[in-house]
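#help-structures
NK: newbie question, is this the right format to request a structure? protein is Pyruvate dehydrogenase E1 component subunit beta
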Amino acid sequence: MQTTYIETQQISFQEFKNQILEDYKLGRISREMSYLGRREVLTGKAKFGIFGDGKELPQLAMAKVFRNGDFRSGYYRDQTFALAVNALTIKSFFAQLYADTSVEREPASAGRQMNGHFATRSLNEDGSWKNLMAQKNISSDISPTAGQMPRLLGLAQASKIYKSVQFEGSEKFSNNGNEIAFGTIGDASTAEGHFWETLNAACAIQVPMIVSIWDDGYGISVPTKNQRAKSDIAEMLSGFQRKEDENQGCEIIQVKAWDYPSLLDAYAKAEHFARTESIPVVVHVVEVTQPQGHSTSGSHERYKNEERLTWEAEFDGLIKFREWILDYAIEIEGKEEIIATVEELDSIEEEAKKVVKAGQKEAWEDYQKTITDLTKSIMLLVENMKGQNAEIETHISQFNKLVSKAKKDIFHLIRKTLLVTRGTHSNERNQLLQKYNEVFEIEKDHYSSHLYSESQWKATHVKEVKPIFSESSEDVDGRVVVRNNFDKIFEKYPETLVFGEDAGNIGDVNQGLEGMQEKYGEVRIADTGIREATILGQGIGLAMRGLRPIAEIQYLDYILYCLQGMSDDLATVHYRTKGGQKAPVIIRTRGHRLEGIWHSGSPMAGIINLSKGILVLVPRNLTKAAGFYNTMLQADEPAVIVECLNGYRLKEKQPDNLGEFTVPVGKIEVTKEGKDITLVTYGSTWRIVMEAANELEKLGISAEVIDVQSLIPFDLSHEIAESVKKTNRLAVIDEDVEGGTSAFILQQILEKQKAFRYLDSDPLTIAANDHRPAYASDGDYFSKPSADDMVEKIYALFNEINPQKYPAIF
């Protein structure tokens, strides 16, 4: 068990004095970073600024109880904390402000995130895990209001799980579960549902979590009284306060942002509750000031009256800290001891200004050198081409007049030069073109790499292992295949766990986890409350701490509750850290072709368009689904696996090699060969397409049926184009709305695979109506493509081609 701050504070007065002055110095450095950062934006050297001034003292106090192995999930105001735990330097702060694309200079995001978004690097360059217990960890910040909260739940829950789950290498992720997850949030953001859902779940399952609420009285310009039912969030949360001898609820601590000794005491208590008793704690930090307002986009003088502004100036945390230091005196062995004189504090403040300015200057020079070196590398090549077109001279002149040059200006000059010299084939132009291709590849890596894994564990690298069938292979319900495969998974991978609504005690609503909780325990096979956003958040946080979670969202429609977290957080983790963090969570869900508005939707277009960065796998049966689970547990990428809801009671032959066979991602399967038309589909609709294809065969139309299997990635070897090349006709059949997934599939086939070259007829899409499906079997029939719809529409295509051979039906 790690000791806590309370248990370790036996120090001499000199040590105490040194700590105070170090805190004051760091607070002043952080404040000067905010001041100078704002000036850099307003003078045009940076795009936008949002800073942590006013929150220095509570963040210094929080940092004192933050240990190696701990995690933070926050938003963009925590620069003092990041400095205090050595996750940020002055130079890296300004490098991020300038959007420097160097990972070495800006390790949090390599210039991909605006300033104030912090992260530590959890991964080595090859994508393998670092020893997270040897560092203080910050999970990559996101801007969406309260969006950081669901992930916080998973980061905290991981500690609870590691108390009973160990596996080879788990020592890199936990020391017997003694880590705390720290969350930070602005007071106004507690009006968001994600805050309440997360805190509710944390209080129910009792995880070691400390949530700091920075309360400055406003949500940008809107005062607290207009944000919630009560202005005081601690008062609102009073019903969450745990009772003695009850294993529910949380501790609530309220403290003033300018009261340094009280802040130390508050966070020491919070750590003790969380680390020793695994209790969630809310630290409500009140009377926070915001000296420069919300951001560089506006002025707080517009909405704060003179009285408020005067109060903020008086109760600025650093001013109050200075006063406390100067007022402090204690008698030790008959001698009065003080912490510092006015002159000593003045000296610290001057030194803070100097080191911040020096760090900013170095960061700016490093960033500018990148621009200068790029300019030098191309200017001579552009100059050499002046004689080939008069416009080039004009473009060079315009470029040289720019006061501040960015990469976009350099590339604009190159591309304009290449544009006006199109059609020429001089050596000078060829040299410029070669250079352009070279530097463009570099910038493509800077701005567009790592959306998906680039490691050896990338999903597409997982070797295909086909299911093995023998004479003894049984015909069983589809749910038995996936259940028995899960049994092998949980036996094989001790780091794997599953959780969701009804996932534990009853073995999920379709019995795909039947008996698993009894066999593997409630920690690994767990029920959750009805709270989809935080089920996803659990998955993200657990995966960031080395576990392999399967987050079950009971029905596909309910995934809409998760879409914000999937889109803004999970899908961007690897990208926004440029390969510095990953969260290989598997989202298990089920859907398609059920009857009724609320359980049969097909929001696939929303998923694939809003969640690029997450693999989207759509197996046509439960054997395929089981194979995808086996594949993804060998990979290091997040994925959504959509099981066919109407397939659990359909018979399938159970493979002999459960837990071993894999289904490759990004690979289609031809399930019926044909020569007249290619029919492309996926999921539950595949069965109906096969039925329609057999009917078409009777009408003299030989249809080739392709099961996509994987929407993201999509048909990496372009096998569909080869099919169209053979059949010369194409129909995409989908149960999503018109222009939904069918449009995506069509774009992939026609544009990316260039299959339009082989078409003798217009491509056809057969999709569902734009409304949700009506109830009952008739509702499905009239709302989504039926076999009759497919037969008639495909037949009509051939009627246009040869009306004599294929006379009109209607």
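mod (FA): yep, format's fine, and the tokens are attached above. The longest strand covers residues 730-737.
NK: thank you!
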